[in-house]
């Protein structure tokens, strides 16, 4: 289905979401049509954040908002949907557009398999009527879905359109870029060289994929790395849990700007407890690159200053490999909670692979070494 017809049939003039590769045609269409515009299109920190913004929009206008997300984001909307939007509470109509990763019978990465299995069940448990859209869904069929869902929306309920792989199309290609010069994979390799046999917790997406391939290239094995293949935004909390239990070991967290934004409260918790053995590195390219490159808000805020305000003892921002190496050396020999923000370009190798070990294998090897 052409995404322009999809959007036109839905008929809303307000969209809020967290980007998803399955929904890239929709994301590109929204960026091409609106860019980032408070009146029409907001890219939020996480999916629960989106649901709350949608509530505010409805309260102010009486209109029905649309929230888009990957199905992994269903967990983040359960609380606001159940305790705020639900028709037994405030009865806020909302349309959810959900990319179906891990659809049963379709090959996908391990972190998507179970989520894919329960995608429709979770919606049913939240009393949200779900319609599945695939490659064969015609404009007429989708129009009928929308008409059916309209009855729920007018009674203060929510509906969801679950989008299968390849269901939406958009001909225009949107290129996302910034002015930074550092290449993320080179940054990760410099971190690997500096950390030695210290433990590394890496965030969801391409950072973990690049870390895995760097270890392969160096024939180092993977026992010192915990790859946070799912649960975006939680790698720093995982690192905090390890640092608290292993105070005599240096723990490094390689994070991303989109992930940090998703659950920024973790920074306050880390800063307040200030574990001396934790180094938190955020590779900031101002983009949700793993799912297509749509922008985050981190080009407009100062993450290092936020870390300082949260209680991180030492914070710094770097934009060159020379500066990075200096700060990594300090962090390696230091004994204080450290935050390093690395300004990075958008992009990765076209042939970047994925981990060839299973999550269980990764966990077991990591636990042996830690």
Describe this structure in words.
With 370 residues, the chain is of the alpha/beta class. The chain has 14 helices and 14 strands. The chain has helices at 3-10, 24-33, 47-61, 74-85, 110-125, 139-154, 184-195, 206-218, 235-245, 257-262, 265-273, 303-310, 321-333, 359-369, and strands at residues 15-17, 41-43, 66-70, 94-99, 129-133, 158-163, 199-202, 225-227, 251-256, 278-284, 287-288, 294-295, 314-318, 338-343. The strands form three sheets. Strands 2-1-3-4-6-5 form a six-stranded parallel β-sheet, sandwiched between helices. A six-stranded parallel β-sheet has the order 8-7-9-10-14-13, sandwiched between helices. α2 (24-33) links the parallel β1 (15-17) and β2. α3 (47-61) runs parallel beside α4 and α7 (184-195) crosses α8. The longest helix has 16 residues, at 110-125. The model has no long low-confidence stretch (mean pLDDT 96).
Secondary structure layout plus pairing:
Layout (H helix, E strand, L loop, with lengths): L2 H8 L4 E3 L6 H10 L7 E3 L3 H15 L4 E5 L3 H12 L8 E6 L10 H16 L3 E5 L5 H16 L3 E6 L20 H12 L3 E4 L3 H13 L6 E3 L7 H11 L5 E6 H6 L2 H9 L4 E7 L2 E2 L5 E2 L7 H8 L3 E5 L2 H13 L4 E6 L15 H11 L1
Parallel strand pairs: 1-2, 1-3, 3-4, 4-6, 5-6, 7-8, 7-9, 9-10, 10-14, 13-14
Antiparallel strand pairs: 11-12
Helix pairs in contact: 1-6, 3-4, 7-8, 7-13, 11-12
List keywords for this structure.
14 helices, alpha/beta, 370 residues, six-stranded parallel beta sheet, single chain
């Amino acid at each position: 289905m052409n995404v322009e017809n999809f959007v036109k049939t839905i008929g809303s003039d307000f969209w809020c979401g967290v980007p998803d590769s399955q929904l890239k045609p929709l994301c590109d269409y929204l960026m091409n049509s609106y860019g980032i515009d408070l009146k029409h299109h907001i890219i939020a920190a996480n999916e629960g954040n989106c649901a709350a913004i949608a509530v505010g929009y409805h309260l102010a206008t009486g209109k029905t908002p649309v929230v888009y997300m990957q199905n992994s984001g269903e967990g983040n909307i359960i609380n606001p949907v159940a305790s705020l939007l639900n028709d037994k509470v405030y009865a806020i109509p909302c349309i959810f557009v959900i990319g179906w990763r891990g659809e049963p019978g379709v090959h996908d990465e391990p972190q998507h398999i179970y989520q894919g299995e329960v995608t429709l069940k979770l919606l049913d448990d939240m009393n949200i009527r779900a319609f599945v859209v695939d490659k064969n869904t015609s404009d007429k069929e989708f129009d009928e879905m929308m008409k059916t869902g309209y009855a729920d929306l007018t009674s203060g309920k929510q509906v969801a359109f679950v989008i299968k792989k390849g269901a939406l199309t958009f001909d225009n290609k949107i290129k996302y870029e910034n002015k930074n010069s550092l290449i993320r994979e080179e940054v990760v390799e410099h971190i690997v060289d500096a950390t030695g046999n210290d433990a590394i917790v890496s965030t969801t997406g391409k950072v973990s994929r690049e870390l895995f391939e760097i270890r392969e290239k160096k024939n180092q094995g993977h026992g010192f790395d915990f790859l946070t293949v799912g649960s975006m935004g939680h790698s720093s909390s995982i690192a905090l849990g390890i640092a608290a239990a292993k105070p005599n070991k240096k723990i490094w967290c390689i994070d991303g700007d989109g992930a940090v934004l998703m659950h920024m409260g973790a920074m306050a918790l880390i800063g307040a407890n200030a574990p001396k053995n934790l180094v938190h590195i955020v590779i900031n390219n101002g983009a949700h690159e793993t799912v297509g490159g749509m922008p985050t808000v981190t080009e407009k805020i100062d993450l290092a200053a936020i870390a300082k305000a949260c209680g991180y003892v030492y914070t710094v921002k770097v934009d060159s490999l020379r500066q990075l190496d200096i700060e990594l050396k300090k962090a390696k020999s230091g004994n204080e909670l450290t935050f390093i923000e690395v300004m990075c370009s958008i992009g990765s190798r076209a042939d970047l692979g994925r981990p060839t070990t299973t999550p269980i294998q990764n966990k077991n090897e990591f636990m042996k070494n830690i």
